[in-house]
Input
Amino acid sequence: MREPVRDKGRLEHILDAIGNVEQFTDGYDYDSLLADKLHLHATVHNIQIIGEAVYKLSLEFKESHPDTPWAMIEKMRHILVHDYYQISFEILWDIIKKDIPALKNQIQQYNSEL
Output
């Protein structure tokens, strides 16, 4: 059973991975990121880390913060790890540009509450 006291640590893992995604994609557009395999794969790996950390959050924490699409984040991790051949890089780019910044704001807020 996951312990709620570990949620703060998981939130920190998410924020660290988000910081890495921001760093690895800074100055890149869609085409240049696809062309740079090192940065692309480092970015994908950190999005996987976000999904795994979300999976490890306690159910109580996720239920008390329903505004965050926890199940979708976990599903993205599953696709990146197990169904890697189905990755849509257009969707991945949208996640990087739209969803990651929104998630960062939410996680920072949740982290400050703990």
